[in-house]
Amino acid sequence: MEPVARALVRSFDGSGEFSISLPHSGPIAQELKRMFLQFSSDTGSRGHHFNRALLTECQNNYESLLEVVDSPTSCKAEAAQAWQRLAMIVTLIGHLYLVKLAPRSAIRMILTDLIPSGDSQPAEIRVVCSHTLLRVVGHALADTDAIYLVAFMGQLVELTAKSSFGAHTRRLVEELQEISTSSWQLKRVLTVRAEMVASHVEVSCANMGGEQVCSFNMMASARLPDLVAEVKSQILNPLDVLTLILPTGALLPYDDETPISDLLRDL
Fold this sequence. Notes:
By secondary structure, the chain is an alpha+beta fold. The chain has three domains: about 1-100, no CATH class; about 105-185, no CATH class; about 190-265. It has helices at about 1-15, 25-40, 45-70, 75-100, 105-115, 125-145, 145-160, 165-185, 225-235, 260-265; strands at about 190-195, 200-205, 210-220, 240-245. It is elongated. The mean pLDDT is about 80.
């Protein structure tokens, strides 16, 4: 199965003798899996083997190409070619996820690898790669993993705002932010950010696209249930998902005993 998986990936990323274009990669992978199952008595094991071989091939290509793109010793032409293939591999993984041949954990792993949590500045190419993947899977993640998507988008937007990225990359992030509001947000998702300001906690609430909803101050001794109750009292419509995150994009741990000021100080 490994040769078949390798041929499929190479045909898609442009390094093979023939090429497959979107949106055919996912259905072709599904059909190959069906064929393996049809001619195997141990269908469960056979199907799992094909999935594993396909994802391993994708992961190996992703890691090796990202290394070339990241390397300061790569020549311009080599890096450009590697980036083209990397974008195709990431797109392929996204489409495999949409047809349930790649797990959600694989998408999370790639996004977290590209943009690690925290306020360290990622390479610009990693932001562009995140945009490429989210354009494919963002709408699906909004349905199944809204909390993670909200936190990731918040981090991506903030890092871009603080960066010296070029105009093209900034436009891509703005585009992604707009899509997240207009197309992905099937549920009402509210992001609540909290930070210490003098002796108070400054709280701001925004939807996934960044539109301001409300802002207020709380005493530093307040606890998270107080914050949640205050947020809900200030907005008109009920929420499907309420996400508490820090300005860095990290999730605020839910602790109903510790004062908010202590949680912020510890983090």
